[in-house]
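Field: COMPLEX_INPUT
Field: COMPONENT_COUNT = three
Field: RESIDUE_TOTAL = 575
Field: MODE = joint
Values follow.
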Amino acid sequence: MRKSSVIYLLIMLLLASFSEVYGQGHPARRGRNVRENMFVLRTLRMTQALDLTEAQTAVIFPELNRAEKEKAQLQANLAGEIRDLRQIINKDKVTDKEYEERVAKILDLRERIKRRESEFEKFLFTQLTSAQKARYIIFDIDFNRGMMERMGRARLAGKENK
Amino acid sequence: MMKADEERELIELARRGGVEAFMQLVREHEHRILQLTYNLTRNREDAADLTQETFLQAFRAIKDFKGNSSFLTWLHRIAVNLSLNFLKKHQRASNYLEDIDSLEEKGRGGELVEAEGIPSVEDSWLSQELRTNLEKALEELPLAFRATFSLVVQDGMSHKEAAEVLGCSENTVSWRMHEARKMLKKKLQPFLSIE
Amino acid sequence: MKCEQAQKLISDRLDGKLGWWGRKRLDRHLTACEVCRDYLLSQEIIQREALKIGEAEYPPEWWRQFEQALKEKIIQSTPAEEVIGVPSGQVEINKTTDKKRRSWAFKPYALRAVSLLVVVGGVLFLIIYIGRSKNEELPLPLVLSYEDSYFNLSQILAEDEEAASNLARSLEEAILQETIFSGSEGEFLDIDYYYETDNRPIQPEDLQIENINSEEGL
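Field: COMPLEX_OUTPUT
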């Protein structure tokens, strides 16, 4: 069996243990959502881009999944807070205090996401060679760009089908 | 066809203001650029204007041409941008009827010569119907898809070359071609099923 | 192989982009799928007809006039001191423009400063408005972190369920490509075989999950 297939199955097994995060509040949910798919694809591509050894994946993957679990939860909370903020913004009977509280919550969540991401990257870099660190930087930029392009295509495809 | 080093020399001269050097570059590439603008606009006058504007802009901007891509690719990029901006502004409806009229003029000694687009008695009616509707369908494609299709199919570019011109990735070009083909097939289905 | 995938391969093949393995896989699918054989035939017809339309030829005299008009416009629109190689009587010849001192020597620096301001302004514009653009071509992110990119993406997709569904499907396909389709020759795994050995094949309604999740963040 090929290395990428092994890694794929490993990721799926680990993902299965985090189903309570991705499926939060929706017990009838099946399949994977965008966040999950992005995580799987990013992990697969990162493994290839950095040419990680099995020993490295054995150490990195558990921490990667822990970080993903926390960040996914934080992102879901952040999206919820922003959705709520959109609904109340500029409405009457919303006090300054309430605005301040909501804004503080959102900023705090953003900060925590950034911090967790940074923590994981610091850990990751303790496991990589210098060349792998350099490849990670390029991979990160290319992946983010590719994801925005992919989203652009997904939006266009939606418009064209109308 | 001009050699690469000959072209480089001419570009260098043109950079320093050499009009004659630039005109040699124009003569080398004008046919392809005009074909591109015509494929996109489907109107002779507009195509000629846009081609002229492409070369004007190229002369003004040639000092900034760094040679990271080929000169032709750079010209293509200017031509595509100008054409798409033009189309967006004018929201031109299908011109294929105008072109059909001008083609009929041809047979009576009109000044321009059309290559294989002249409806002849040898063309089957079905094939002509398909071609007429294909022109219309191409014009109705969203601009990004239209530009991509034109560059790849009508201009014969590879996905990589088209990606350079359009400033996107090869994957995006590949995806756009697939989507454009699906859209064209959907629109042309009635004419394809009776071929 | 699903027909949607085969039809994508057909498109790549028509553009000369399909490699050996892709051709083998496509041929195998085509021997068994009449729908895709018809699709290939239709696309070949469209391709052939597209090449025929729009081939315009202009007579030599037209080109002479075009070049003359272009040359005149270039000369008229360009400052005299920047033009060389034009017969005297029309414009003064200056063969060494780069040696000539301009009285407004500071201008290049001013231009550079303005360009820098424009670039910085453009960067800030992209960063601030990246999630709100409704244009067809989204501006590409600069060096954003993965989580920043994801956040922008999720905000856009929260308002566009169809795009979210399309994106989820696209990512699924990309994952399959990574694990099944890519790789060196001789290591090819048949996608149909893979699905048969999976516990549960992916159903189309699975990809509708984005409608449910969009409010909670993606």
